[in-house]
Amino acid sequence: MKALLVCIILLASNIPFASAQYERNKAVPVDKVLFGKVTSVRRITETELQQDRNHGWKVFGGALIGGSIGNQFGSGSGRALATVLGAMLGSSIANDNNDPIKQITFQLVELMISIDAGDEYMVVQDLDPNMIFHAQDKIRMIFLTDGSVRIDKQF
Fold first, then answer.
1. For the domain 16-50+102-153, what is the CATH code?
2. Strands across the sheet containing 120-126
3. Which among 2, 21, 49, 126 is most buried, taking Cβ atoms within 10 Å?
4. Of the given ranges (21-35, 49-63, 65-79, 114-128), which has the lowest mean pLDDT?
């Protein structure tokens, strides 16, 4: 039972989650706010390849375990050969069982916006299932001081 729980936790810890970059209970400075309406909405996906930062350590661990198992066999130069072969086999198995590159897919929304002053903007942001946009929705375009932009419905 404990082994099953450990396996579930390990699998769950390797699952990437796409999330909006929000921090709760934090005030951020706003540069300006514009008001307008959505002229078109398009859902898009973005795929990102992410390098596994622990890949080298996993291969090293496989070599270490394989070498220590190989060291249990033989004597003299045979033991040294078994240790080297065990290390090579362990690192090879660890390398084959771990894909160093993971593919993550983000759900995004592309909004074409017409500002009340007459300007047109295109904004791509994370898809928020709690805020679905439609054409003709009244919005506010919030420009943050860090250069990012966020679109929210105007209530």
1. 2.40.50.100
2. 120-126, 101-115, 30-51, 138-144, 149-153
3. 126
4. 49-63
Domain ranges within the chain, ordered by starting residue:
16-50+102-153, 54-96
Does 8 score more than 60 pLDDT?
no
- Mapped to the 3 state alphabet, what secondary structure does the chain carry? CHHHHHHHHHHHHCCCCCCCCCCCCCCCCEEEEEEEEEEEEEEEEEEEEEECCCHHHHHHHHHHHHHHHHCCCCCCHHHHHHHHHHHHHHHHHHHHCCCCEEEEEEEEEEEEEEECCCCEEEEEEECCCCCCCCCCCEEEEEEECCCCEEEEECC
pLDDT at 133 exceeding the cut of 50: yes
Distance (Å, whole) CA 137 – CA 154: 8
